[in-house]
Amino acid sequence: MAYKVLSNILVKDTTSTSLVTLNSAMLVVMVNKDTKNNAAFKELDKASKGYISKSISSHLKDDGSSVLLPQVVGTKAESILLVKGLKKDTPIHKWLSAYQTIAKSANKLKAKDLSIMCGNVYPAGKDENWLIEMVAKTIESNVYIFSATKNKTAKQPSLKNLVILTTGLSRANLSKAKQAAKKGFAIGEGVNTAKHLGDLPANHCTPRIIEKKVKAMKKDFPKLKIKSFNENDLEKMKMGSFLSVGRGSDEPSRMMVIEYNGGNPSDKPVALVGKGITFDTGGVSLKPPQGMDEMKWDMCGAATVFGVMSTLARLDAKVNVVGVMACAENMCSAKATKPGDVVTSMSGQTIEILNTDAEGRLVLCDALTFVGKYKPSYVIDMATLTGAVVVALGRHASGVMGNDQYLADMIVDAGEESGDRAWELPLWDEHQSCTKTDYADLANIGGGREAGTIHAAAFLSKFTNDYKWAHLDIAATASYSSPVKAGTGRPVPLLSELLLSKRLK
Known about the structure:
With 505 residues, this protein is of the alpha/beta class. It is built from 14 helices and 19 strands.
């Protein structure tokens, strides 16, 4: 189940495509200091008898400001959106925001196709191919509209085709630009796939429903190797920690494994492990009712794995990756795990469960032990694990912790490149004391209110001694509560960039 919105993204050069005769529902011109010297723009402005240049002078004052010109005489575009382009030193998040606004404007106008002349200004250290990839990714992932559980009020995205206009590219460079657009398109599709899975209500997205959707990926991507493990399988593998989370639910837990082998057969795979709590009541350690509806997004780590694996398969990427989706529903019932219970993990370590609302780490620890069988080069888990990371970093960055500095550095670098930012938090030996207890090898919480995000990572680190590992806490970035409640599809862009750029050596 891939979730692609646009039908096509094309890259065309304005030397062979006239803006005057371009049949487009919406033509966007990013205006910067060089625009007025562009031959294609000059022709467009001349056809409008100077109306466009006058509109620029009178309306575009601040960076990112815009004006919509409907049915400009002398041109074939149904409307022309003029946007004052950003400068090289403008932060990347503002570049993303500008194109997010364009995507939403196209849907609002019910435009079926969109053409964008991006201009030749890009952020410092980036190039035109970066810009093209970013535009393709951002438009695809922001024309998405969730309507799967609506009947009478359902709205579908109007936009179906995107044309990115370049100027003066050689044949070789135009080919590279088209590859950049293809990459961005596939990442945007992966973002939508993760976003859609997260946005589904919990009764439409149980572990068994996710299992069906994962198995359905074979229809789109027959190269994927997919395995599914039910509760009997997990019991045989002695995943007592994983199984403890779903004890209180009538919905059985599931673990799905997606293998993608596009690289050299001798290369060790990168392993991705995602927390997939399809709904989290907190269990016996019940959460307060306010905002509990947002706990349907507690499976966004697993959704991220789903989105990244679809991106890799779409692009026939030359990498080997194994993705694990650890899915369970955390409910409260007479069968539910109780605070103080002790369970045995797949690693053989016993865990005293002092708080049943610290359940994500309980499914992850067994999944992290499981991936050791693949002898991975690197392991990255991602999870909506702690509210503390929202306090620490706000909504802007995912938290990174791990046992390998190179891996952590490459994750942060990939976040900067993709605009899907991450920031490293320390994971020192002093933090390990939080897992101590008199009644088991480990406790699933500790340390009180201090360093909650780091203490969760410290717990997971007890299961990752055999390989290079990093933990991404995405509780702050995978979904938002305001201005609307919605999934974001993060950190699909970060992980896709990390894997596709082959930063990991």
